[in-house]
């Protein structure tokens, strides 16, 4: 059985890309004294690990609560890009699965 660490992005906590980055920082770097970049390249880097709560290359599972709200708030294009990054469609070097709730 795949034992991935689970991270939960809560779409109820934000309604803009700035809020999304705040949520990513809250979820993936909790308790660390550092800020992440406010762009999707930095988000991709965070998913690889080694900067926050999981180790570099560690497989993770992302649960996205209120996913449809995020689609409405961030737009289909932005969410499509975010999902592509999470699922690593360009093989940039992380191993993430996504559950849309």
From TrEMBL:
Family, similarity comment: Belongs to the barstar family.
Taxonomic superkingdom: Bacteria
Species of provenance: Oscillibacter valericigenes
Protein name listed in UniProt: Barstar family protein
Classification via SUPFAM superfamilies: Barstar-related
Upper classification of the organism: Bacteria, Bacillati, Bacillota, Clostridia, Eubacteriales
Domain Barstar (barnase inhibitor): 5-90
Entries under InterPro entries matching the protein: Barstar (IPR000468), Barstar-like_sf (IPR035905)
């Amino acid at each position: 059985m795949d034992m991935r660490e689970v991270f939960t992005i809560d779409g109820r906590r934000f309604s803009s890309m700035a809020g999304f980055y705040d949520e990513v920082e809250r979820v993936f770097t909790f308790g660390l004294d550092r800020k992440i970049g406010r762009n999707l390249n930095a988000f991709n880097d965070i998913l690889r690990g080694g900067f926050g709560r999981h180790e570099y290359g560690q497989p993770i599972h992302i649960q996205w609560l209120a996913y449809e709200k995020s689609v409405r708030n961030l737009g289909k294009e932005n969410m499509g890009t975010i999902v592509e990054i999470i699922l690593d469609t360009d093989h940039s070097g992380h191993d993430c699965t996504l559950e849309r709730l």
